[in-house]
Amino acid sequence: MELRHLRYYVALVEEKHFGKAAERLHIVQPALTKQIQALEELIGTTLLIRNSRRLSLTKAGELFYHEAIKTLRQADSAVELAQRAGKGLIGVIRIGYVGNAALSGMLSHYLFQYRLHYPDVEVYLEEMSPWEICEAILNEELDISFATDFNNNLSEHLVAQKLMSWHWVVGMRKDHPLAANKYISREQLKD
Questions:
Q1: How far apart are CA 88 and CA 176, in angstroms?
Q2: pTM for the full model?
Q3: 10-46: string of b/e by CB count within 10 Å (b at 16+)?
């Protein structure tokens, strides 16, 4: 049995007339009659009571009609689901990030924007070091990441796009010897 058999049968039941159903389906009436007969043979029971004045359903035909409607809706749903997945509108995205991406607000900003456009995509987040992120992307464990600059040590198999920059800060106790400095160099932090 093919979906077209179900479509033909549903159209015939809804139109209650072979000629109108054939017109709706853009086929000729004799072809529709043959398809319905083939369907009844395939199922092994009579679905329709035909007479010159009207078309009516047998009990089997009535039950089959309701199941055919469900099947066609499910088939249409499957097609729509596949199309949406093919367009990236549903599915899963795995995102790695470094702590700075979360603390800066950048990660939440981009996630908010993403969710507005793709509300049906599941988002998995994992905090990692930049080196772990590179490896995870290359191993296809992550799809994308928000990481700090790789200082040109990025794998040739990856592409990076700069989204933002910020100044580094150092946190320390108030009584630390460097706490009074407005700026601290890397050399001052080395030991």
A1: 52
A2: 0.57
A3: bbbbebeebeebbebbeeeeeebbebbeebbeeeeee
